[in-house]
Prior knowledge:
Elements: H1 2-6, H2 14-18, H3 22-25, E1 28-35, E2 38-46, E3 52-58, H4 60-69, E4 75-80, H5 85-89, E5 92-94, E6 99-105, E7 118-119, H6 125-132, H7 142-147, E8 151-155, E9 158-169, E10 174-182, H8 191-203, E11 209-215, H9 219-227, E12 231-243, E13 257-261
Parallel strand pairs: 3-4, 10-11
Antiparallel strand pairs: 1-2, 1-13, 2-3, 4-12, 5-12, 6-11, 6-12, 7-8, 8-9, 9-10
Helix pairs in contact: 8-9
Amino acid sequence: MLRTFLETDRLFAAYALCDLDDREFQRTRWGVALADGDPIAVVLQYAGYSPQPIFVMGDNAGIKSILQGVIRPRTAFVAARSEQIPAVADSYRVEPGPEMLRMWTDRVHFRPYPADVQRLLPVEIGELNRLYQLGFASWLPASAIADGLYYGIRVGGRLVSAAGTHVISPAARLAVVGNVMTHTDFRGRGYASAVTGAVTAELLRFCDYVVLNVRADNPPALAAYRRLGFMVHTIFEERLIHRSEPVWSGWTGTFRRVFAFRKES
Length: 265
């Protein structure tokens, strides 16, 4: 049921579709609103440290009621289309933030970017985290490399640029590229295109689509991804949200049932 609903916009729902795989599904919690037995809205909550990520898709009344009665984190990062933010704001204070773009490519549109890149190994996780901490607070376990796919560029033996994956689904034939970072001293040399291109090329060996997120106000990143053949699918929001009080304002009348389920390990 979830897969059928999410497949109606598989590029926007790429993360959620990948989370249906067994390894990821046990880390998730889902709320679904039904009308006449069919899903009209879905909210996904991914387990982890607060603020946890949540994804919303579908009818606003259904999203509103799921957030009121089923999926109710105190603080979260929400991914939603702009027209769905009012449904989120009914239960949460939504902080301002930039627009995001969901971009995608496939074997037909992808343009390789030849460069001297190296696939990273789990033992190199310390170097990777040191690179990421230059630009944003981040810490990745070695399993992120072991379970995912990371490529990097070295200058003088030093890791100066890297890109990897957020999630991969062989079942859905989808993957999400992320964690793209180049040291500030080495930007403007095409390194971001090189490492992102290497990851994407490897993923397209067994995936039909590769997607990524980028801020709409980041022209250099947009140019780097377009150089590889990535195209914009949709505009959406990634916002930090905080639970408002009161936490309950009743059901809306456009559907008959809202429920939650999760896979138990």
